[in-house]
Structure formats: C-alpha cells, structure tokens
C-alpha cells in the first residue's frame, strides 16, 4: 500500500511526465525531437544478468565494478541491494553537477558554484497515457543562487537533454 505523501508525489510526477512528453513533440509531425550524436567521445558498457531487478549488473570500464541488484521492499523485493533508479539518480546528480561546473566555467562564474550540491530523486511509477512504468526526476541544486546558471546547466546536461529531447536508442540481438 502506498503512503499518502508517496502517492501524492507519484501523481505529481505522472502529471509532470505527461506534460513533458507533450512539450517535446513538434506541432507539425507530432514526433519527438530526438538528439542525434555526431560522434561518440566516450562509451560506457554494462551488462545485467540473473533476475533483472534482482540480478547482477557489471561494468567493464577503466575501473570495472559490479553490483547486486534487488527490488526495493516497496516493490515486493528484499531490498538487499541497489536498484536501477538509485544508479540513475546517482549518475544524473553527478552529470548535472559536472554540467553546472562546466557552464559556470564557460560563463566565468566559478565562484557562484563553489558550494554547489545536486540532489536527484528518481520516481518510478505507472505512466498515465502509455501504460506500463516510467520515471520522473526531481533535481534540487543547493549552494547556488544564480537561477539562470542552473537553467543553463540543465540545458547543457546530457541526462537532462536525453530526458527532455529524447535519445537515440539502438536495439539489437547479440
């Protein structure tokens, strides 16, 4: 059973996802404007095995690592490991902070972000119009008073861009 604050937050997230999806379509075609990369400057690799949300995920980057995944207790799991939403929240927070730092540097405002902290919340829930599950994200930026700088970082952050404009996803069999 969902608690009232969680249900309220989830419903607000659903509305935000639906509004965002509507705002990312073009009037003439009704299609989403998807970001297309000119080149690949870095590629991260990961693989999941086992029971999906209760399996194992590995990355074979410069510093390989692996994590045991577990469904959160609220989703019927044992909660004895990490879950994809935690990993996404961590990646997004780090990416947004990097975008904030790069944007501040480019604009000559590095002093404005010295105490910057980025917190993200990734919400998993049912999607209103499509069915199935989806995510919504809340980003909180602390230690920065310049709202224009925060907005510019959001426009520059690769994670924000992917969620706002869409990303190319290539699916194939191995």
What would you say this structure looks like, in words?
This protein is α+β, with helices and mostly antiparallel strands. The chain contains 4 helices and 5 strands, in the order αβββαββαα. α2 packs across α3. The chain is globular, with a radius of gyration of 18 Å. The N and C termini lie far apart (39 Å).
Describe how the helices and strands are arranged.
Elements: H1 4-23, E1 46-49, E2 56-59, E3 65-68, H2 84-106, E4 117-126, E5 133-142, H3 147-156, H4 158-165
Antiparallel strand pairs: 1-2, 2-3, 4-5
Helix pairs in contact: 2-3
Please name the defining characteristics of this protein.
4 helices, globular, alpha+beta, two-stranded antiparallel ribbon, 5 strands
Task: Describe, in short, the structure shown.
This protein is α+β, with helices and mostly antiparallel strands. The protein contains four helices and five strands; from the N terminus they run αβββαββαα.
